[in-house]
Design a protein that fits this description.
It is globular, with a radius of gyration of 22 Å. By secondary structure, the chain is mostly beta strands. It contains four helices and 20 strands.
């Protein structure tokens, strides 16, 4: 077939797919209706995930390994969300949360852990805690208004097309940075930490994933620019945040572009940069102290110094492809001289994937997703683990390095409006970057209620 003959065929397919999507019925996504004109928003959700892995091969294991003997465990997260619109441009929000259960091997032994809902410190218990409490201020820069979606992070249903948005208070850094509509939500999409977030983005957070900070964003139709300053924990994976901004903070900058790459299809490109300031340990110093006989094992915590900076970059892509099919990709890199501090132990990552709504099989509210992820370590980080060092997530006692490669697929089934169930499979090669262990298969079941 001549290339000139392909253009009409492609246009016809795109038109048919677009018409199928346009005819798709709109199904409410919450169990109860939320009035669009009320100043008060009250909602909530409950998410339960059960995960199991069978026995897998391991030449050895350490205190921070994913355990090779079969195990299963459930996690639970319940959230109550309240928003109030003080004025058309001023909103306040509060989320109360409770997390219970746990993760496989107490969430240790993987760079890309299998359940984003898991709190990384099981000793915190299941008592309720304030997850978010912040103010949103909209500053109009244009007279033209556009429609907006109301939810637990935004109230206004009409916003200025060009505007400044200010947020300040307690929130999650990834509420606003590195967001991706295909891979960001463990309650309806992928479950793996490095599928839902950029694994190399060591974003400021306490061990539950929240922090205090301020974010300013310039929003327009095709471009957005965001700047955020967040509190870092006092120690790696710690629950206590450091309020001394002169010595400890997370600086975040993201540029979002929405070019028209395919006719009638949304495209989004996000370029991210971050720099974390904290009292971090040096892998090289820990290695040197061990090799000179000053320590029985390399110990990153013994070599922390204030004023160190860990920085990195990220690329985040979304593309509507045809009808209900969307693709996504992420790539990230962070410097590897200083310890992973706040999110997970990944120094570089690439993830690609897609999701497909069930329009084509008459289940428009269902969704299937597939992602491929590869995570890596810096030379210093790798050597530290080879010599028997431990990070806050990794430590097999030794290491034969290989990239940690992950395949994840899920099917999300809508049972009733706001009620979904999902089956998920993750296959992980070289768990914890160790070719002497694995591969491991993790099977998951999820139940979700959106009120």
């Amino acid at each position: 077939m001549k290339p000139s003959a392909l253009a009409p065929l492609a246009s016809t397919l795109l038109l048919l797919a677009g018409n199928a999507l346009a005819d798709e019925p709109t199904t409410p996504t919450t169990l109860v209706d939320h009035p669009q004109d009320s100043a008060l928003y009250v909602g909530g959700q409950a998410n339960a995930i059960y995960q199991y892995h069978p026995d897998f091969s391991a030449k050895y294991s350490g205190k921070s390994s994913l355990q090779p003997r079969h195990e299963g465990i459930a996690s639970y997260v319940i959230t109550l969300s309240v928003g109030y619109q003080l004025t058309p441009t001023t909103e306040v929000f509060f989320d109360g949360e409770m997390a219970a259960g746990g993760g496989l091997s107490t969430a240790l032994g993987l760079g890309g852990f299998t359940n984003l809902d898991v709190v990384r410190n099981p000793t915190l218990g299941s008592d309720p805690y304030p997850a978010r409490f912040f103010l949103r201020q909209i500053i109009p820069l244009s007279h033209r208004y556009v429609d907006a979606t109301r939810g637990h992070l935004a109230m206004a249903t009409r916003v200025p097309e060009t505007r400044i948005e200010l947020r300040a208070g307690k929130l999650s850094t990834v509420d606003l940075f590195d967001v991706n509509s295909v891979g960001s939500d463990s309650h309806s999409q992928f479950m793996n930490w490095t599928a839902d977030n950029n694994g190399a983005y060591d974003y400021a957070a306490d061990t539950r994933g929240y922090t205090y900070g301020a974010v300013a964003s310039l929003e327009s139709t095709n471009v957005a620019l965001r700047l955020g300053i967040m509190l870092m924990p006092t120690v790696a994976n710690g629950i206590t945040l450091d309020w001394h901004l002169d010595r400890s903070r997370g600086d975040n900058l993201e540029l979002e572009l929405r070019p028209h790459l395919l006719p009638g299809r949304l495209s989004t490109i996000r370029l991210l940069g971050f720099a974390n300031h904290a009292a971090m340990g040096s892998y090289r110093e820990a290695i040197t102290a061990f090799e000179r006989g000053r320590e029985p094992l390399p110990d990153i915590e013994a070599h922390c110094q204030p004023g160190r900076v860990k920085y990195g970059f990220g690329l985040n892509l979304e593309q509507e492809i045809v009808g209900p099919l969307r693709g996504f990709a992420r790539a990230g890199w962070s410097e590897g001289a200083y310890e992973s501090f706040a999110y997970t132990e990944v120094n570089d990552t690439v993830a690609i994937g897609a999701d497909l709504r069930g329009t084509w099989w008459k289940r428009p509210s269902d969704k299937v997703g597939l992602a491929l992820i590869t995570n890596g370590l810096s030379a210093d980080h790798r050597r530290y683990l080879e010599l028997g060092g431990h990070g806050f997530l990794l430590g097999d006692g030794a290491l034969t390095y290989g990239r940690e490669n992950i395949l994840e697929t899920y099917y999300n089934l809508t049972i009733y409006r706001g009620v979904t169930a999902a089956a998920d499979v993750q296959v992980i090669e070289n768990p914890g970057y160790n070719r002497d262990r694995g591969p491991v298969v993790v099977l998951s079941a999820r139940a979700h209620l959106e009120i």
